[in-house]
Each structure stands twice: as structure tokens, then as C-alpha cells.
Specification:
By secondary structure, the chain is α+β, with helices and mostly antiparallel strands. It is 29% helix and 35% strand. The chain is built from 4 helices and 19 strands. The strands form 4 sheets. Strands 2-10-9-4-5-6 form a 6-stranded mixed sheet, with no helix packed on it. Strands 12-19-18-14-15 form a 5-stranded mixed sheet, with no helix packed on it. The protein has a 4-stranded antiparallel sheet with strand order 1-3-8-7, with no helix packed on it. The longest helix is centred in the N-terminal third of the chain and has 37 residues. 14% of the residues are buried.
């Protein structure tokens, strides 16, 4: 049985040689070393990684060198529009990169007036000051007690050759408070008094608005009842004072008082069946009567003295 197997094996090998399936050189090759193969692949991987890392490093160095060679430049993410309230200190913020030994100045476009050089105030108007924050590279123009005349274009300028600048627009506004229907409002007894106070031109909405009636702050929880206020805040803030079932005692002076703006007054007249025109006519009649009496007295005194 064993001899038969040997003969079969020899026959198969001879057949492989005959048809070129195998050759003697195949038996001279050693099987690859698995560990050596893994190490070679590992080595190749790290070679590739190190080369990429080295290239990335070069790119970073080139980027940094390019930034340094670029010289001073502005961070243009800062807002170019600043709104300030009359009398309230404001700042125009200018952020500069790579300033180095260059000098930064602030210029007012209206009259091309030089305001500051570096940290020093150049103008005689000491309301303008330069403030430097070394941690953020911010160079801010501080304006004390701004007035509406200070509105306009200001430029933060770097002393390169030629100079480069970053322009900003300052708007100094004075809050305006109005009450619709003023200065006098006529209301029928039993109707609803609706006073609308509008506040605009503020950098931010007023934290609060309160109303007074004849010098006394209105209590919305008073026993009188039917008194409420609704305030809508925004670029334009509106406050609505609602008084239901108006009474003659509700007549008088109402004042809208924003916490960070001027107040405004309206006179409310609650009519008990009268007509405003009739009231005004009666007032004119009273004034006319008073003037006639006054003229008569003057004439009487003048002629009496002449006698």
C-alpha cells in the first residue's frame, strides 16, 4: 500500500514538471518571514507618517513666516458702526495684528484732525483718549461725554508706507420720548384711556419705564382697578398705559419716565358730556372777558388820574 502511494506521488510530481506547473527554483526559495514582513510594513508606514508630518511642519513654518512677513494688518471682524448715547462714554475698537514697532493713530475724517498718536492724545480736546489692551491687541478710541456733533467717520491708521487704515462710523444720538396724541388728550367718561409712549434712538432698550399721574407713580394694583401697562422693548420701545372706565378723577398730567431717556408729558381731560370745542370756546371767552375787564380798569385809572 505504501509503495503504491510512493509511485502515485512520483507520478504526480513528474506530471507537474512535465507541464511546467513547478520548477526546481521553487524549491530553493524560503518562505517569507512573517515577522520580518510585518516589520517591513510597519517601517514603511512610519516612514510615510514621518514624511507627512515633516511636510506639515514645513507648511506651518511657511505659514508663520508668511504672516510675519505680511506686516501689520487689521482684524476686520470688528463692527464698523458704533451708536452712542449723548453724554455716555463710548469706545471705537480697532484690533491690529503684527503691529510691531509701527505707530497707530486715530484720525477724524470730518476735518482730518489727528486725535491720538500711540497712547498719547494729540488734540487739545481731551475728551478723546487712546486705550491699548496688550492682551487682545486692541487700540480703542475712548470718547468722553460724546455730543451729536461728534458723529461721523473715524479712522484707525497704521504708520506703514503707505499708511493703511480701518474706518468706523460713530453715531451719537439723543433719545427721543414722545406720547401719541399729546400734548392734550380728551376722553369721554366711561371710555378707556390709552396712552402710548414711544422711546427711540437708544443704544439699548430702557431697563424700565414707569408712569406718573399728577406727580405720583401709578400703582397698577391700586383699589381703583382697571389700570395696566404693557411694554414692548426693541430698537423702538413702546409702553402702553391702559385705564379702563375713565373717571373725572383720572384727568390730569401723565408723565412717561424711561429709566435712561428723557421723560414726556401729556394732559388728559376726562369729559362729562362736554365737547372739546365747547371747552376751548369757553376758555377763550373767559380770557376775552378777563382782558376786557383789565383794559377797562386801566382806562379808568388813567382818566381818573387826569382829573
Amino acid at each position: 500500500m505504501i509503495d503504491s502511494m510512493k509511485h502515485l506521488t512520483i507520478a504526480i510530481i513528474l506530471t507537474f514538471f512535465k507541464y511546467g506547473i513547478v520548477s526546481l527554483s521553487d524549491f530553493d526559495q524560503q518562505p517569507p518571514d512573517a515577522i520580518s514582513t510585518i516589520n517591513n510594513k510597519h517601517y514603511q508606514f512610519h516612514n510615510d507618517y514621518d514624511e507627512n508630518s515633516f511636510n506639515d511642519g514645513n507648511e506651518n513654518v511657511d505659514t508663520m513666516q508668511s504672516a510675519l512677513n505680511r506686516g501689520p494688518y487689521f482684524d476686520i471682524s470688528a463692527s464698523r458702526n458704533v451708536t452712542a448715547l449723548v453724554g455716555s462714554t463710548t469706545y471705537l475698537n480697532c484690533r491690529v495684528k503684527n503691529l510691531g514697532n509701527k505707530t497707530l493713530t486715530w484720525i477724524r475724517h470730518r476735518d482730518l484732525h489727528l486725535l491720538t498718536i500711540g497712547k498719547e492724545t494729540y488734540t487739545q480736546d481731551q475728551r478723546f483718549q487712546s486705550v491699548h489692551n496688550p492682551h487682545t491687541n486692541d487700540w480703542s478710541l475712548k470718547v468722553l461725554y460724546p455730543q451729536q456733533k461728534d458723529s461721523g467717520v473715524y479712522e484707525c491708521q497704521i504708520g506703514t508706507s503707505p499708511p493703511v487704515g480701518f474706518s468706523m462710523v460713530l453715531s451719537v444720538v439723543e433719545p427721543i420720548t414722545t406720547i401719541l396724541g399729546g400734548p392734550d388728550m380728551y376722553i369721554d367718561v366711561g371710555s378707556t384711556i390709552n396712552l402710548t409712549c414711544i422711546v427711540k434712538h437708544l443704544p439699548e432698550p430702557p431697563p424700565g419705564i414707569y408712569w406718573t399721574h399728577n406727580g405720583i407713580e401709578i400703582n397698577y394694583d391700586s383699589p381703583r382697578g382697571g389700570v395696566s401697562v404693557i411694554t414692548e422693548k426693541g430698537d423702538i420701545t413702546q409702553s402702553y398705559l391702559l385705564i379702563q372706565r375713565a373717571r373725572p378723577s383720572d384727568s390730569g398730567k401723565y408723565i412717561c419716565v424711561p429709566s435712561n431717556a428723557n421723560s414726556e408729558t401729556i394732559n388728559v381731560h376726562v369729559l362729562n358730556g362736554e365737547h372739546p370745542a365747547a371747552i376751548q370756546a369757553a376758555s377763550h371767552l373767559q380770557i376775552r372777558s378777563f382782558l376786557l375787564i383789565l383794559v377797562s380798569l386801566i382806562i379808568g385809572i388813567t382818566f381818573g388820574n387826569n382829573r
